[in-house]
Give the backbone structure.
Amino acid sequence: MTQGAALRLSAALGAALLLQGCVAAAIPVVAGGALAGRSTIAKPKAQEVAPAPTPALPAVAEQLEQPEVRIAETAAPAIAQPAGVEPGLMAPIRARGGFEDFLEYAFTHSATPAPGELQQSAILRDPAALDGERIPCGMEDAAVIIDLDPADGVFTPARATSGLAGMADMLANLRANGVKIAWVSGLSALEAGAVRSALERSMLDPKGDDTLLLMRYGDDRKQTRRNEFAAEHCVLAIAGDAPTDFDELYEFIIDPANATALEALYGDGWFITPPVLSEE
């Protein structure tokens, strides 16, 4: 090999080695740049997907809870409404009544009316007329009717424990004054023995002297029993915890505005009272 050729070969080899070193040196730089680039991009992405700050959650919870409180406060008064009572009739019913008023009214009106005067009964002359006109009494014995059933069903004689405080003595005074007492219930007449036991146990009718108005057959009604009793007695007053205890017409009233004439009877023959027997 000539000296010139040797020099050219040596130069070529040196250039090749020099290029390899440059490439090798460039790889870490590129790799480092790529990693650095990834690191730089990753940080903004992590910030973008981060969840919303938690302090905003309580405000949402308050917005969700508040309507529930308002609904509860609005709905509460409806719980006190007795079954069978039209909304338009609630005011007069709550304003007049009570068992003491019932007994006082019966005691006061049990006296023989003055000559030429007629005692008004608590029985409507024509329920469909919705005029509040009542049947006048003749010479019949004075009487009262007390409904034993709660507004949502019939009472359970076996569970009845005691009557309202002081009620036994007040009823005894009525009997002593010649007023007959009738107890009405939707129970079958076959339950008469159990009803008697409950009234005796509670001291409301300790001697079993009072009349029971129970259902005698399948389609018998309280209204029928009240009317039959009223045909032989002057029913001065009726006590119950729902308007249907006075007359079944309340089951058919659509517009309370048509029955405003009946409001005058509350506290004047009709008395809304709590259930007279407590059940355990």
About this structure: The chain has two domains: 3-76, 88-279. The chain has seven helices and nine strands.
